[in-house]
Amino acid sequence: AQSVTQPDIHITVSEGASLELRCNYSYGATPYLFWYVQSPGQGLQLLLKYFSGDTLVQGIKGFEAEFKRSQSSFNLRKPSVHWSDAAEYFCAVGAQGAQKLVFGQGTRLTINP
Amino acid sequence: DAGITQSPRHKVTETGTPVTLRCHQTENHRYMYWYRQDPGHGLRLIHYSYGVKDTDKGEVSDGYSVSRSKTEDFLLTLESATSSQTSVYFCAISEKQYNYGYTFGSGTRLTVV
Predict the structure, then answer these.
(1) Is there a contact between B43 and A103 (Cβ–Cβ < 8 Å)?
(2) pLDDT of B21-50, one tens digit each?
(3) Mutate to test the interface with A, among B97, B106, B108 (most CBs of A within 10 A)
(4) Which of A1, A62, A107, B5 has the fewest CB within 10 Å, making it most exposed?
């Protein structure tokens, strides 16, 4: 069965600094990978997804993620964060043939002014 | 938010009482999911549906049942609520399995006292 680990529970960065959120997955074949963002009191919104092809995927709000098969990782990046990026971020993995996603524990992002 | 509504948004109930949460969609999507969100656990799948009257269990299904008699409605029932079921419940929909990413509702905050 597939699984996802987000090693960082909470990250704090300064506004304008770069950001990288880590995601490691466990799955025997090529996974389907997703990043979601959750603002306080809201549901989750899809940021980006990877199925196949180019390992660097672009998403909404200036985010990107890179799939690295050798490291079983799908880290989320942003070159310059804004105060509005403060939220909780979830990585998720889907397996071929499965009908559901498995989510990581989430990483809470705080932005310092 | 993309035609998915959860009701109620908030509910406080007493231990031992039955509770039903409703998820309603206007997107005519085949797949519907119920997740619960708890600190330190991320999102965990309770039940999902892959069509009218077609449902299956997720990883934390004990104490929960679901029904889907129409494409647009997916009901989650706690037969006899317990304090361990205090959580935020999210419904999600998907057009074709998980490949296109989920669309989430705004959540229901349930407190069992």
Answers:
(1) yes
(2) 999 999 999 999 999 999 888 899 999 999
(3) B97
(4) A1
The dihedral through the CA atoms of A17, A46, B97, B24 has a sign that is positive
Q: What is the pLDDT of residues A31-86, one digit of tens each?
A: 899 999 999 888 899 999 998 888 999 999 999 999 999 999 999 999 999 999 99
Length of chain B: 113
Q: Which residues of A touch B95 (CB under 8 A)?
A: none
CA dist list (Å): B58 to A23, A53, B34: 22, 30, 9
Q: Does B7 touch chain A (CB under 8 A)?
A: no
